[in-house]
Design brief:
alpha+beta, Ubiquitin-like (UB roll), Translation Initiation Factor IF3, 5-stranded mixed β-sheet, 4 helices
């Protein structure tokens, strides 16, 4: 199994498997046993199925006796399931300035609510431009108002903090 620049996985199949001894599994994943590659190839010809190397680093390497198209489908299905599980919990960012207009503010609140309902955390970033940094209280007031507006969907994770000219607050979704 090897990777190219697009994260596609390549599996060695049939005559590309060069290890002299392998551990063979059947279609269901049940172990047939340790055998030479020639024995496995003859078994492959008898059943009409492909040999697919699934664990090349194991001692001896693990090879599965399965139709390659079916194997690729199963692997793609597994990858999609993993991707679906890992999707939730991403960190989405909502950026504002302390003197944001009402319409823009409402749009940001709506966006944050959408992020929180899909299980994502929201990072509220309030950026102070120029001399606005002298009026930090406006940023804190905006953050309090924002948290109040999204409180039915999420709650603040920790205390807000300043990073340079950014006031940052993380909001986690409510379960």
């Amino acid at each position: 199994m090897s990777y190219n620049n697009r994260n596609r996985i390549y599996y060695k199949t049939n005559y590309y498997i060069t290890h002299p001894e392998i551990r063979l599994l059947d279609e269901k994943g049940e172990q047939i046993g340790v055998m030479t590659i020639e024995e496995a190839r003859s078994k492959s010809r008898e059943t009409g199925l492909d040999l697919v190397e699934i664990a090349p680093k194991a001692k001896p390497p693990v090879v599965k006796l399965i139709d390659f198209a079916k194997f690729r489908y199963q692997e793609e299905k597994k990858r999609r399931e993993e991707k679906k599980k890992s999707k939730s919990g991403d960190l989405k960012e909502v950026k504002m300035t302390p003197f944001i207009g009402q319409g823009d503010y409402e749009t940001m609140v709506k966006r944050a609510k959408k992020f929180l309902t899909t299980g994502n955390k929201v990072k509220l970033s309030i950026k102070f431009l120029g001399r606005q940094i002298t009026k930090k209280e406006f940023g804190h007031q905006l953050a309090d108002r924002f948290i109040k507006d999204v409180e039915e969907f999420g709650q603040p994770e920790s205390n807000r903090k300043f990073l340079g000219k950014l006031l940052i607050q993380i909001i986690t979704p409510k379960k």
